[in-house]
Amino acid sequence: MNRQSGKQDILERIFHLTDNKTNVKTEIIAGATTFMTMVYILAVNPAILSEAGMDQGAVFTATALAALAGTLFMAAFSNYPFALAPGMGLNAYFAYTVVINMGYTWEMALAAVFIEGVLFILLSLTNVREAIFNAIPMSIKYAVSAGIGLFIAFIGLQNAGIVVENSSTLISIFSFRDSLADGTFSSAGITVLLGLLGILLLAVLLVRKVKGAILWGMLLIWLLGILCQLTGLYQPNAELGFYSLLPDFSGGIAIPDMSPTFLKLDFSEISSLDFWVVVFAFLFVDIFDTLGGLMGIGSQAKMLDEQGKLPKIKGALLADALATTVGALFGTSTTTTYAESATGVAEGGRTGLTGVVTAVLFGLSLFLSPIFLGIPSFATAPALIMVGFMMMSSVTKIPLHDYAEAIPAFICLIAMPFFYSISEGIALGILFYVGIHLFTGQAKRKKISVMMYGLAVIFLLKYIFI
Questions:
Q1: Beta bridge partners of residue 172, listed in sequence order
Q2: Radius of gyration in angstroms for the set of CA atoms belonging to the chain, rounded to a whole number
Q3: Nearest 5 degrees, angle CA 365-CA 36-CA 237?
Q4: Backbone angles phi, psi at 136, to 5 degrees
Q5: N or C: at which end does the chain have fewer Cβ atoms within 10 angstroms?
Q6: Bigger pLDDT: 292 or 28?
């Protein structure tokens, strides 16, 4: 008992649990929940970067280590429950645009990511990024939170297969009738059905205020999927992208060798103008994805102060910058703060202990990858959708009666899911905010900062020239 009490006292001193109205159990559940909703990156990132010619096993190890290091940086420098990993979108830009379309080698692309990370560190140390965060109006910050909610809910609907592509309407709902007709119900149809059941189950658990509802919901739906496979209701079909739900240890337990990508940076094109265009493209998206995540999740967790500022933001920004730099050395694309951290916050995570738990699980995933890679998307999708709902509550804080505030917030909010980008939502929100206030003569009354005007000019130039 004394030893247990001593451990809790140490954690209390390090993470200030009582001050943040949380406890060890809550933080552990929150950290596990965040990890469960992020673990897909261990499968997706190696698959995307392998298209650029990188060794898939090495990228798997680099991805797990980058997530581990970045999340620990965040816990150490800010004591916030935010988790980091190589970012989706940024990895696609790395592989398909920089390497495949522009013709750079992946070693050169890693060098660009590394330089971007160094510039990121300098910006964090000089308060530029903090000034950007503080200059953004509260209405836009609330919109960012709600927009991220819609964005991750949309990702959840896609991951579960509930939303599918449609040639005439772009997207539509999954058709059970068509899946019965073409013989895919036992694979695609069952997983969609399980995803819908997961949403219902999670909603019931949340309404009944079950502690750890999101984590329990994911585990129960995964277990139900395994039962469906064992009874033959679900039949894996690798050609369609539906795999066994049972952990596969047939290959044994071994950490893939990281040497094919470790420290393989090529700076030979550093004098090229195109190279610096790539660097700044990485930098732009990384800055505003990170700021968007911090705004959205910080708002949901009620961490923003009365002026809309995030205390200890400098530490959070520095952690993100260091994570990108270290990740490039390991051999992966830009590492950034994940919107899925909101799932852990929804479970009550409020301190860096949540992040430490998530980081430890990423470390364990190196040894137990068959288990973690076996978590199906239909099990994690309901969590993303429910957290998206929770984050939408920020809409109620937007002054909808004030059109000059509400319209830019609305543009920011809807742009994130429609353009599949947090940074695009922020960019359009700021452009419309400054534009509307300028052309209606309200700019002086609202005291729009010089930083906001500067950001508007930068975004305008971005859309004209990039």
A1: 164
A2: 22
A3: 85
A4: -75, 130
A5: N
A6: 28
Three-class SS string for 181-231? HCCCHHHHHHHHHHHHHHHHHHHHHHHCCCCCHHHHHHHHHHHHHHHHHHC
Residue 265 pLDDT: 92
The rounded distance, in Å, linking the Cα atoms of 149 and 143 is 10
Say if CB 146 and CB 413 are below 8 A apart: yes
Bridge partners (DSSP) of residue 86 are: 335
Question: Residue 251 carries which DSSP code?
Answer: T
CA pair distance 172, 84, nearest whole angstrom: 31
Q: Which residues on adjacent β-strands are paired with residue 85?
A: 336
CA atoms 276, 278, 284, 287: torsion sign: negative
Question: Nearest 5°: CA angle at 171, between 39 and 102?
Answer: 65
d(CA 450, CA 458): 12
**CB 41 within 8 Å of CB 63:** yes
DSSP codes, 71-83: HHHHHHHH-----
Residues 150-187: b if buried by 16+ CB within 10 A, e if exposed: bbbbbbbbbbbbbbeeeeeeeeeebeeeebeeeebbbb
Q: Are 356 and 75 in contact (CB under 8 A)?
A: yes
Tokens 């505030």 correspond to 405
The residue assigned the tokens 């369609």 is 240
- Residue 337's H or E segment, with its range, is strand 335-337
Helix ranges restricted to H, 350-402? 352-365, 369-372, 377-391
How is residue 259 written in tokens?
A: 């040497």
Residue 23 has pLDDT above 70, yes or no: yes
Report residue 357 as tokens: 């738990």
Residue predicted with more confidence, 152 or 207: 207
Which runs of E-coded beta strand occur in 151-234? Answer: 163-166, 170-173
Average pLDDT over residues 133-162: 84
Q: Which two tokens stand for residue 230?
A: 């064992």
Residue 335 forms beta bridges with which residues? 86
Q: Are 44 and 54 in contact (CB under 8 A)?
A: no
Average pLDDT over residues 444-465: 83
Side-chain half-sphere CA neighbours of 64 within 13 A: 23
- What would the two tokens of residue 1 be? 């008992």
Give me the DSSP letters along 297-355.
HHHHTT-S-TTS--TTHHHHHHHHHHHHHHHHHHT-S-EEE-TTHHHHHHTT--SHHHH
Q: Helices in 79-189 by DSSP H: which ranges?
A: 90-92, 106-125, 128-135, 138-159, 176-181
Strand partners, 163: 173
Rounded to 5 degrees, what are φ and ψ at 173? -80, 150
Query: CB of 66 within 8 A of CB of 327?
Result: yes
Cα torsion for 18, 19, 22, 25, to the nearest 10°? -40
